[in-house]
């Protein structure tokens, strides 16, 4: 049993004896008054959505799922198709991918997560390298302190083109390393 404060987006928890995947987590409160967690979840068996609010000390059973290395292949509206080393294909719905959509790229290696033999989501590597496809040029004189700007990164689907906050010296066509858990810029990758 894990307390609500340790549950992360993508975890599978049991609510009323049914498995739910946590799709989104919003935290409210303070350390003095206590935190509450508003979760957007989806039932893995029926695909029905659920939103609920829990206290930080509420406890949940976390379901450990099977994982298998896969490679992102293509988008077959509304499903994303992944393939394993044995050329077996797994289809995953868009809403189950969550933040992974921001980083997907053709041929990208990740891990498919299975529940009852069905692929339900993917886990990305902790860090990935992506090319900056658009970034405003640095403005001369705007360099005091730790100034950041937005940079759009490459991914498989234009509709999910994602932005990352980067230092001013990062320019278009640079390849940067990103932490997929926090969406934070790590460094410029030198070739």
TrEMBL record:
Alphabetized GO MF terms: translation elongation factor activity
Subcellular location: Cytoplasm
Record-level GO cellular component terms: cytosol
Pathway membership: Protein biosynthesis; polypeptide chain elongation
Keyword tags: Cytoplasm, Elongation factor, Protein biosynthesis
Keyword presence, Protein biosynthesis: yes
Residue span(s) of domain Translation elongation factor P/YeiP central: 67-120
Pfam families (UniProt xref): EFP, EFP_N, Elong-fact-P_C
Keyword Chaperone found: no
Ranges where the Elongation factor P C-terminal domain occurs: 128-188
Gene Ontology biological-process entries: peptide biosynthetic process
Classification via InterPro entries: Elong-fact-P_C (IPR015365), NA-bd_OB-fold (IPR012340), Rib_uL2_dom2 (IPR014722), Transl_elong_fac_P/YeiP (IPR020599), Transl_elong_KOW-like (IPR013185), Transl_elong_P/YeiP_cen (IPR001059), Transl_elongation_fac_P (IPR011768), Translation_prot_SH3-like_sf (IPR008991)
Family the UniProt entry places it in: Belongs to the elongation factor P family.
Described function: Involved in peptide bond synthesis. Stimulates efficient translation and peptide-bond synthesis on native or reconstituted 70S ribosomes in vitro. Probably functions indirectly by altering the affinity of the ribosome for aminoacyl-tRNA, thus increasing their reactivity as acceptors for peptidyl transferase.
This protein's name: Elongation factor P
Native source species: Massilia polaris
Lineage summary: Bacteria, Pseudomonadati, Pseudomonadota, Betaproteobacteria, Burkholderiales
């Amino acid at each position: 049993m894990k307390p609500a404060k340790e549950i992360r987006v993508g975890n599978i928890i049991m609510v009323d004896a049914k498995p739910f995947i946590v799709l989104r987590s919003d935290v409210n409160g303070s350390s003095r008054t206590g935190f509450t967690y508003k979760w957007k979840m989806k039932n893995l068996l029926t695909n029905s959505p659920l939103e609920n609010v829990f206290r930080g000390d509420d406890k949940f059973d976390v379901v450990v799922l099977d994982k298998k290395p896969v490679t992102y292949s293509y988008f077959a509206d509304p499903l994303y198709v992944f393939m394993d080393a044995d050329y077996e294909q797994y289809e995953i719905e868009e809403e189950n991918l969550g933040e992974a959509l921001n980083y997907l790229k053709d041929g990208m290696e990740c891990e498919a997560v299975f529940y009852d033999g069905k692929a339900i989501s993917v886990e990305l590597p902790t860090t990935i390298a992506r090319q900056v496809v658009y970034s405003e040029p640095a403005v001369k004189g705007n360099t005091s302190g730790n100034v950041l700007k937005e940079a759009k990164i490459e991914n498989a689907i234009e509709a999910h083109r994602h932005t990352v906050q980067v230092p001013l010296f990062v320019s278009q066509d640079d390849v940067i390393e990103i932490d997929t858990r926090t969406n934070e810029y790590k460094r410029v990758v030198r070739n």
